[in-house]
Amino acid sequence: MDKSKTINRKEFFKKIGTAYAIAVAGPSFFSSCKEKADPSLLEQLSVDWNKAPCRFCGTGCSVMVGTRDNKICAIAGDKKSPVNKGLLCVKGYHLGEILYGEDRFKKAFIKKNGAMVESSIDEALDLIAAKFKESIATNGKDSVAMYGSGQWTLQDGYAALKFFKGGIGTNNIEANARLCMASAVTGFLSTFGKDEPMGCYDDLDLGDVFVLWGNNMAETHPVLFSRITENKRINPNVKIVDITLRHTRTSQASDLVMHFNPQSDLAIANAIAREIIVNNQIKKDFVTKHTLFKAGTTNIGYGLEGVAEPTIEDQLISFEEYKNFVDKYTLDYAEKVSGVPAAQIKKLASYYGDPGVKIVSLWCMGMNQHTRGTWINNLVYNIHLLTGKISLPGSGPFSLTGQPSACGTVREVGTLTHGLPGGRNVKNKEDRDFTEKLWGIKSGTIPEKPSAHTINMFRKLKEGKIKAIWIQVTNPMVTLPDREKFLKGIEKNKPFIVVSDIYPTPTTKIADVILPAAMWVEREGCFGNSERRTQQWNKLVPPPGDAKPDSWYTIEVARRMGYENLFPWQKEEDQGKGLFDEYRKFTIGVGKDLATYEQLKKERGMRWPVINGKETKWRYREGSDSYVKKGEGFSFYGNKKLQNKAIIWERPYEPAAEEPDTEFPFWLTTGRVMEHWHTGSITRRVEQLHQAVPEAYVEINEEDAQRLKIKDGKKVKLVSKRGEITLKAVINGRARPHKGVLFVPFFDEDLLINKVTLDAHCPISKQPDYKKCAVKIEKV
Amino acid sequence: MAINILLAAVEPGNEQHVINTLNNISHTEVTAQGEGYIIIATDNEKSEDDFNLMETIRSIEEVKHLSLVISANDDALNALNIKDF
Question: What is the fold, at CATH topology level, of the domain defined by A182-403+638-650?
């Protein structure tokens, strides 16, 4: 290589990048800038640039993908994107490299005589179809299962759902979003009758106060957090409130940091509601016109294995009954339970209660991975409903997502055991009839009862009740809580396991067949992000070797099993649009109307409901949402049987499933770091990301470490009733847990924290609580 | 990736102080500045550790926010037809 030319190229790239950065930041910030942006510079690169949504979290940043010679060679933030306005986080900038790990699967593999042997795709697909047919014939339809993810494209999820519910006739389909989003879903449904946020990311630019409920946005949603900090830079009165177990990068940017005891968010939220009532800050006309009050079954257990699931009922109550209920949650009581000073709770309540303050509540796994996940979602909605601060620009509750299409594919397509496309439910006859008619299948094909949610699906797998499972684009042998018991059961009963993925993982280790998957821009697809934005991308580079999209594999196996009539699209290039167009029919008229495929190809995504080509920023409010009739003001039209009113719920504080005691004196909470995404199977293959955080560690409070004589960087053993791992102690690292709390990130398959966690879950949403169990820590 | 272009949000008035600090960090170059913002190029081939470099820049007290704006690997750099310029 000519070194002088390399230097010139670098100089040129610096110039382009600088011009791009200026364009990204916008002229208002650069009025005094010495250089002027020249957009044509970027086009002078002999590289093809195309848009695609980022493959990582649920933010849905748009990236510009630079390709040359059938490979990705550069990534840039997409300045035309209203989501990220040209910015990306550190993962996003290394997005292209996730496709090029050395150990990428390029061929199918079949286990023969105990060893994985390279095979043709046809042989693998024939075997899968034969094994599934055999299992169904011998053990019934519910003996086979599909487990997918919020990384499925809309097309992948729709094909899998149609194959299982419309073809085989079983509801045994789940997705890993059960582990991260299910409480948000049941929270939305129980309060509003319809899933997904009413607001949008514009709220981040418009709000006055941002309350982060157990949400380390600076690391887990850095681009969205940058919108808040930018708002704060322009408007210095903007406040950030961080309700947290650890002092994090988010805390550093916050005005009020509330260190709370695990599980006590329930008490804090009720105390805020009480303060609002006591201080006469209820928006009475809104509450009267648009809300009802309900109480539900309490002491609902924790979903633990061997314990019967409770019958959960509810009834309407009066405002007075609700008021009497929250009256117990005085500031003093909340302080006693939560450890948060009463003055801080009062301050936060004053932000919510002040009619002149626009306020956004944000959360993700901190509230959802919770044995009372549905309840805490309800309780935050309560506060917004009592104050009428909802569906307004800069005001509203906002549940964030962790996967690129947890909303789009799992929640909207309905790839859960109870789900059908467009927010429909198998338990509803009208929904089943509509679906069967649209699919052109025999009435009664779709079972009316949900079968098994994720944890029960894997409990059945380990018990040998599910005989064959197909796992697509997810890694449950890292993510399942109390993983060892599942692994032991699977090794004992030896179900037939198919895994479609791109790299070896602990899940491919237990596979009988591995299918090499085409990923991200190696195929055409769509994702749906946290703000109801559907984004489409084209196939930009060929996948390696024999790799194919998951939807293609699903359709090919379905054909081999006799369901070819369900999938009339013969060629892969027809399936992207074909599957989407059919799925879109389910969304029309039910408040989830998607844009046309043609429109999505042109736009940087559209927020549903899209009516006459126009997207919706704020749902449920007249003038913004076409589904709200003139004169209604607000309409929570998901609750048609309840006069289109939202529900304010009576939900008490109840303790966690497992709490520290003398033997296991610490709380363990798990989560993510900015550089790694979920189980690390793709980010750990990007050298720079891996170098940045090469292994998992345990964060320990400085005082706890001193007391136990644990030194920074030294190995310690973390032990629970279920298992143990040894890993490095970090004291005063990038985050500092408060006393009695330990934090371990879950990205490291070699230091698997889910050997230690508990599979307790919210009995309503069935989402496990990865944020709370009891452990002890020992020097090694 | 061979080069990263970083956008640093800086407290207005502190731009020159941050630039002076950046001038002492190897393999970084300030390529543009504006009120409240500085654009920085880092040469990752030379630094061989762009993440620590980013963390170093992020740790400068007056840097309020740091984002990567674009990065490119050798393929992209080689794709430039420099004869055209």
Answer: Dimethylsulfoxide Reductase; domain 2 (3.40.228)
Phi/psi of residue A750, each to 5°?
-85, -20
In chain A, where the domains are located: 3-44, 47-100, 117-177+453-607, 182-403+638-650, 666-779
Q: Which fold does the domain A117-177+453-607 belong to in CATH?
A: Rossmann fold (3.40.50)
Q: Of 3.20.20.450, 3.90.550.10, 3.40.640.10, 3.30.200.210, which CATH number belongs to A47-100?
A: 3.30.200.210
Q: What are A598's two structure tokens? A: 């043609």
Dihedral sign for Cα atoms in the order A212, A213, A219, A224:
negative
* For chain B, counts of helices (H) and of strands (E): 4, 4
Q: Does B80 touch chain A (CB under 8 A)?
A: yes
Same fold, A47-100 and A666-779: no
> DSSP 3-state assignment of A605?
coil
Q: Are A521 and A153 in contact (CB under 8 A)?
A: no
At residue A12, the pLDDT reads 67
Residues of chain B positioned with their CB less than 8 A from the CB of A33 = 32-34
Q: Name the strand (E) or helix (H) holding A133.
A: helix A121-139
CB A126 within 8 A of CB A449: no
Segment 6-65 of chain B within 8 Å of chain A by CB: 7, 9, 29, 31-37, 39, 41, 43-44, 49-52, 54, 64-65
Task: Return d(Cα A508, Cα A499) in angstroms, integer.
Answer: 6
Q: Taking CB atoms and an 8 Å limit, are B1 and A233 in contact across chains? A: no
In CATH terms, the fold of domain A666-779 is Barwin-like endoglucanases (2.40.40)
| Summary mean pLDDT of chain A | 93
- Selecting from B1, B35, B72 the residue whose C-beta is nearest the C-beta of A31 gives B35
B67: which chain A residues are within 8 Å (Cβ-Cβ)? 77, 87-89, 223, 226
Task: Please tell me the distance in Å from A30's CA to the nearest CA on chain B.
Answer: 5
Q: Cβ separation of A77 and B1 shorter than 8 Å? A: no
CB A17 to CB B2 under 8 A? no
Q: Report residue A402: phi and psi, to 5°.
A: -100, -10
Which of A220, A669, A192, A620 lies closest to A400, judged by CA?
A220
Pairing of the two strands A496-501 and A513-516: parallel
How many other C-beta atoms can be found within 10 angstroms of the C-beta atom of residue A71?
15
pLDDT attached to residue B66 = 79
Looking at residue A5, its pLDDT comes to 45
Q: Is residue A595 within 8 Å of residue A603, measured between CB atoms?
A: yes
What's the pLDDT tens digit per position in A507-538? 999 999 999 999 999 999 999 999 999 999 99
C-alpha closest to that of A528 among A460, A448, A608: A608
Q: Per the structure block, which two tokens stand in for A718?
A: 């973390």
Helix A121-139 × helix A550-560 angle, to 10°: 60
CA nearest A91 in B: which residue? B68
Report residues of chain A scoring pLDDT below 50.
Answer: 1-7, 26-39
In Å, how far is B40's CA from the nearest CA of chain A?
8
